[in-house]
Amino acid sequence: MRLVHSEATAEETTAGPAGGEGSSESLRRVAVASFIGTAIEFYDFYIYGTAAALVLNQAFFPTLDPVNATLASFSTYAVAFAARPLGSIVFGHFGDRVGRKSVLVVSLLLMGLSTAFVGLLPGYATLGIWAPLLLILLRFVQGIGLGGEWGGAALLAVEHAPKKRRGLYAAFPQLGPSVGFFAATGIFWLLSASLDDAAFRSWGWRIPFLLSFLLVAVGLFVRLKISETPVFAKVMDAQEASKVPTLDVIRGHWRELLLGAGGMIIAYGLFYTATTYCLSYATGTLGISRNTMLALSLVACLFLAAGTWLAATRSDGAGRRKLVLAGCGLAVVWGLVLFPLLDTESPVLVALALGGALFCMGVVYGPMGAYLPELFSTRVRYSGASLAYNLGGVLGGAVSPLIATRLQAAFGSSSVGWYVSAMAVVSLLCVLVLPETRERELA
After folding, report:
1. DSSP 274
2. pLDDT, tens digit, for every residue of 286-303?
3. Distance between CA atoms of 122 and 140, rounded to whole angstroms?
4. Residue 159, phi then psi, degrees to nearest 5
5. Three-class SS of residue 399?
6. CB atoms within 10 A of CB 438
7. In angstroms, what CA-CA distances link 239 with 1, 2, 19, 186, 354?
8. What would the pLDDT profile of 221-256 be if each residue is shown by its tens digit?
């Protein structure tokens, strides 16, 4: 690339009150916009996971036995992960050719509206086989939307930020999942506590989905006020945008793509094992009440936020790679104690089990907001970072609840813990091969 500018130039164009060259936008507005957008989109994604664990099996698969109905429900849940790499390719293409801002607006609309329509979808009793088929379609569209969301939000923060504070500003979109999960779990907990079981299963579970109509409007209001990132604007000015970004990623950054995806496996695996699967396991197998598990999940979410913020902000000084490796190492150990703690059925120990798992996940996840974008050049950064992030989701998030359900049924809960530890080892080995990036120039 012809575009090389000094650290001083990068600091001047991003550190002042103007978010970039010729812009009156402050870094604070950029941070807020990236945070609110990811919080809304991950809220949309997580309410589906909670509903899949609690009610979708009966609403859309009532003719199956309990285990197969749960597997079918988790399979519709996994469909979105298969769609997310496709979303990364589509939105990454336009994000690397047209710009980050406009693509983020479209991804928000696609994600939010497909989520809201799940709340309007009649169940199996009304539509028969069309009900689960339409559910799968909406979930697929959800995945495409989210596939384009994270990369754009992370780049929005990282490409506006001063070089020595990229980890700090990347922490804001990384906190979005914590807040989205807290909001999703909180509203389900309120509905579960205030409605009887029949009302909750009949119509109460739909309310979190319908709220997405309102959240989309809020997200659009915030995102339409932001400007294009100064780093990408320079690429456009020099007419250096990639013609086919995904192909350029595969040709020139295949190593970073595969290893970055491998590094993300444990973040996804921990999250969806400790939330979606453990919620289903604890309420269905252990007999812990739905209200109790939702309340304990809310507590655990605070550990996720703490781990994310701590690791992301510390990565500017300690380095991204070192903290990600530390999180992977912690996860290897925690996978072995997760289910022994959970199986005690003690609320305190269950909260510790879930909170510890999500804290480990946060330590890995927090620095990734800056780490993955820094692995790729500006011309293909949206496509490369998004693909790595979402391929990791297919390997770590889509299959985790399915594999965990099968392992528990065949070998007991301890086998699920060993599976979590194995994912952590895979991620640790992948990150060991990757370099440190915090001193890299973005353009």
Report:
1. I
2. 999 988 998 999 999 999
3. 18
4. -80, -15
5. coil
6. 20
7. 11, 11, 22, 47, 49
8. 887 777 766 776 776 666 566 788 889 999 989 999
